[in-house]
What we know:
Chain A is mainly α. Chain A is about 75% helix and about 0% strand. The longest helix of chain A is centred in the N-terminal third of the chain and has 35 residues, at about 20-55.
Amino acid sequence: MNYHWDWAIFLAETPSGRTTYLGWLLSGLEVTLALSLSAWVIALVVGLFMGVFRTVPNRWLSGIATVYVEVFRNTPLLVQLFIWYFVLPELVPTSIGDAYKAINPFLQQFLAAMVCLALFTGARVCEQVRSGINSLSVGQKNAGLALGFTLPQTYRYVILPMAIRIILPPLTSEFLNIFKNSAVASTIGLLELAAQGQQLVDYTAQPYESFIAVTVLFMLINTVVMILMHWVEGRARVPGHSGGGE
Amino acid sequence: MGYEFDWSSIPGALPYLWQGMVLTLKITAVAVTVGIVWGTLLALMRMSGFKLLAWLAASYVNLFRSIPLVMVLLWFFLIVPTLLVKLLDIPRSFDTRLVSAMVAFSLFEAAYYSEIIRAGIRSVAKGQMGAANALGMSYGQAMRLVILPQAFRNMIPLLLTQGIILFQDTSLVYVSSLADFFGTAYQVGSRDGRLVELLLFAGAVYFTISFLASQLVKHYQKRKAI
């Protein structure tokens, strides 16, 4: 190996002079976190509603939710991202398309990536919510209805509080996935962590240091999220129920 | 609605798109095969009594599962060509991108397959191993002849579903501008200024294949359930 290692490269100034290469990495980390977290919040809301829709006795609602899940789970994330970013602005009424293209490029990329990740992950959350609801015994729902709750009330006060606790572990893995999937946004030019890594390679010609740094940061995110969710799972556990009891 | 669709560039591009699809399917097939074999070995290592082997397998799986596929691909496009040139003494003009992609997907998927296989092996009743031992089989024989055949039968739907996910994920070779199905569609679209049509077409093709495949898996699962 005649590769020349140079870890001090991160402290060197970038050509623009305003920050160091480490600064680039950290700003990439910031974008990755902002993108993933905002998409995650939307995904949870969408997934929760769609998951409920899939289980209600209404053909229209369950039909819509089924189509949503099948479409978003059977097309590659990359294709979805490109459709949001390149195709949709052409298909919406011209005034909206032009307004979108007038905002600054970073925001355009960020919005497209956020909506894309949110709906992609939402379809997966939806399936978790559905399987959580289906795993409860029918007696729970019947008991709620027998007590005079309406169906929405039964969902709100009886079914969902249990179902959500049950699906926390699989939700954790979806939460981890959204950070990893956010790296796909680098393909439309969004300067998140993976893209900053590639930019660093181009500018510094130190590919190994750059990629190692990016990889370590992704692993760090992974570890922090796991610790956080472990704590949440512990807090939300129903005594005598839903696993974890050893 | 200002946009006027013009699908005319697709028929002429079908031969290229077909070549792209063949490449996509090649990468998928190699990654599924190698991924399952290597994934089985990883699962066995992880469940073996040797602490060091178990630790190595666990670290491997955790490492690959904690970084994005895009990063893994970028890593392999960086490392594999250098290694190939060093070890096999191939000419530098040789296009290593396909090999790099196949290696990257195989090693990456093995981490996910090994988790599925580990769960499958665990799902086989403990008495089976005991019975095999009582019949005088060694650990290797018991695994090969008794445990794994049953485990794989239980796992088939999950392994196939993972294969469908992998088929979709191969579109990420876009980062190396390899001409797989998606890459070809994108190139044709930008060449003809018809990105909208080509991207929608690519999406429809991926959807049709993945949807039909997942319906088949569901059907198989129902039939098997008796």
